[in-house]
Sequence to fold (288 residues):
Amino acid sequence: MASVIEVRHLTHVYMPNSPFEAKALDDVSLTVNEGEFIGIIGHTGSGKSTLVSHLNALEKSEPGTVFVKGTDLGDKDTKLTDVRREVGLVFQYPEYQLFEETVEKDIAFGPTNLKLDEKEIKHRVRAAMELVGLDESLRDASPFNLSGGQKRRVAIAGVLAMNPSILILDEPAAGLDPAGRRGMLELIKGIHQSGVTVVMVSHSMDDVGKYCDRLYVLAHGKIALSGMPAEVFLHGAELQSMGLDVPECAKLAAALRARGFDVPEDAYRRADVAAAILKHFGKGGDAQ
Fold:
C-alpha cells in the first residue's frame, strides 16, 4: 500500500527562545497510506492540531520533514497551492469561516480562485453538496440562516469542492448534539468510501474505534501509542494515564473476561461483545 503522507522526526516549538517557549511536537514520525481512515487521538494540548497543521504546510518546522505523495513540503521549490489542492484541511468549527451571501458562492470560492470555468465550478459545487448531504434547494440560501449542522456541511463542501485526495478533519463533530454527531461521522465515512484518504483528529475513543483503520495517540507532543484500534485499546491503563479512555464496549469486554467469559482480546465493538456473550450462553446467531 502506497503512503500518501510521511512525517519524519517532526518537532515544533512555539515562541522559541522566549519565556513562553513551548514544545508542541517532539520527534513525531507517522505514515498515512492511500485509502486509509486514520485517527489521531490525544488529550487537549497533546499536539494534535499542531500536527495536522503541518500536513498541508500551514505550519513549517525544523527539524523534521513532511512528505505528501513524495513531495517535501519544506522544499523551497514546492508549490504550496498544489499541496493544498491535494490535502484539504477542515478546522474545528469550520462554520465560523463561512462568509459568502449564498451557500453556492461559499462552496464555489475555492474552485473560483483556481480560475476554473463556470461549468466546472457548478459541477464541483453540485457534487460537493451531494456528497455532504445538502439539498439542491439550499444553493441560494444564506449559509448564516442554516442550522449548525448544515453550516458545518457547507464548510466541508467548500473544502471538498477543491477535489482533494486527502481530507484532514480536526474534531469534526465538536459541539454537535448526539444526532448531529452521528450524522457528521457517517458523512465522513461516506466521504472516505468515495475514495478519499481521511485523517481525523478526535478525543473520542468510541468514534475512532468505530470508524478508523489505524490510530496514533499523542501525549505531550510525542507518539505514545499506535496501531489498529484493537491493539491500542489493550493499553487501557496507559490511556487513562494520558487523560483518555477506551470505548465502553472495550471496558465491558475486559470486565467479562475477568468473570470468565471467553471474549476475544481485540473485542471492542458492540456486535463483537454481544456475539461473545451469546456464545457463552450457548446461543448462536448474529448480534446486532
